[in-house]
Amino acid sequence: MSLLIILLRLSIVIASQAGFSTADRVPYGRHKPSNFSEAEYLLEDDYTPSEFFSKFSFFTENDPTHGFVKYVNQSTAQTSGLISISGGSAYIGVDHKTNSSTGRASVRIASTKLYNHGLIIADIAHMPGGICGTWPAFWTLGPDWPIGGEIDILEGVNSQNKNAMTLHTSPGCTITNDGGFTGNMTTINCDTNVGGNVGCGIASLDTRTYGKGFNSNGGGVYATEWTSRAISIWFFSRGSIPHDVSSGAPAPSTWGKPVAKFQGGCDIDKFFKDQQIIFDTTFCGDWAGNTWNSSTCASLAPTCQAYVQNNPSVFKDAYWSVNSLKVYQSPASSEEVSSNGTTSSKGLSAGVLASTAVSGSVNGFSSRTVATASSDASLASFSSKVVSGANTVSTASTQARSSTLLHAAAAQSLPAIPASYSASDDESETDGVPPSSARRRHAVHLLSHRKRHGGLHGSG
């Protein structure tokens, strides 16, 4: 029996059990645009303002970057006015009313869902940058840092006025300048062990990309495309956002050169996996604090901590205002990790994807476990296992087994798959201030810290 017939049988059987046609389905339940056949990306997750904070976990441990900050939980953040939904936007602020000798109250959140590949589009109206003492970041983080990798999309310190984009990895990943981006390459080795963990960096040349210039122009959109070939970051200032982005049918192939494109001597799939999306604002610490005396902020106070501790009112504008956050996946090559910690199939045909959207997992289909789009309420407890922004995996294997059992009945009803079949048969490949050794968030001693505590530690 040909593979095509097998795939058709899979789609028909599952669709008939669910009571609707496969024509009504799209991979992983994604929203199907009118030009579905031509879409470069399909919507995977919409972090709508009304549900925004329910899709994140709140980090409350000591700041791994040694910042003068006290991260608070969701309840405290709400009652203190540090988070809110207003005017269709998610507000994430810091305490700007009190002096504190133990650190300024702030928020650090990490998505409960993990991703492998995709297009992350964030419409941000306001960011905390450009204020002395601050170190805000919008970034992604993989497990067991630096093995899972780190992607810094929007980051800076103190009075910085241009965005610094950086990757951090284990040894073996370097980038090259092929002229395919508009930013300025500052460092080429992404290895955290090189140069005091500066990572491989590309700095924007546009003052609208960060801090005061960003905010005075109403912010803009950051779009980060992560494929097997490269990690690319575009910035669109307010008033210059492409129509395809606004209409929910993003087409990166039409956007021109990105601000940053990380590629070259780096196997992207080897060094980046299971990424969480993170927003945070810390103060001083390993970057903002250590560069205080060499910055324009030095005249304000003898130390960064003294300034942050005794001048609460200056941080009134140190907040994020997020209009929207959406994650898209390519219909041609879909790979993502749901909140139950298991990995979905990559690059499977539309017929199989339509079937897995219903069944959730296909027992014995291939060496990969096909996961649902993180819709299993029974696995919600997994999202609470967060240490330093990365999911603790002490119960990951148990949760993965639970996911398989939850969908066993659906899997048992499927037609048999030939023993010779491999998932690879259907896979296809898809296409400011420079970083300094003092600034990076993961000092070498954090490696021993991670080992001592036996968890997955990462920081932004």
What helical percentage do the residues reach? 10-25%
Got a strand count?
22
**Mean pLDDT score:** 76
- From the helix content, strand content and strand pairing, which structural class follows? alpha+beta
Report how far apart the termini are. Answer: 51 Å
- Strand content is 15-25%
List keywords for this structure.
460 residues, alpha+beta, 8-stranded antiparallel beta sheet, 18% helix
Topology:
Blueprint (H helix, E strand, L loop, with lengths): L2 H16 L23 E5 L9 E3 L10 E3 L2 H6 L3 E4 L2 E4 L11 E3 L1 E4 L2 E2 L2 E9 L7 E8 L8 E6 L8 E5 L15 E4 L12 E4 L7 H6 L3 E7 L4 E7 L5 H4 L13 E3 L5 H4 L4 E8 L1 H5 L14 H7 L9 E10 L6 E2 L12 H10 L26 E2 L2 E2 L4 H11 L1 H5 L32 H9 L7
Parallel strand pairs: 3-6
Antiparallel strand pairs: 1-19, 2-7, 4-5, 5-19, 7-18, 8-20, 9-15, 9-19, 10-11, 10-18, 11-12, 12-14, 13-14, 15-16, 16-17, 21-22
Task: Report on this structure.
The protein is of the alpha+beta class and 460 residues long. The protein is 18% helix and 23% strand. It has eleven helices and 22 strands. Strands 1, 4, 5, 9, 15, 16, 17 and 19 form an eight-stranded antiparallel sheet that branches. An eight-stranded antiparallel sheet has the order 2-7-18-10-11-12-14-13. Strand 15 and strand 16 form a beta hairpin. Helix 1 packs parallel to helix 8. The protein is globular, with a radius of gyration of 22 Å. The termini are far apart. The C terminus is likely disordered.
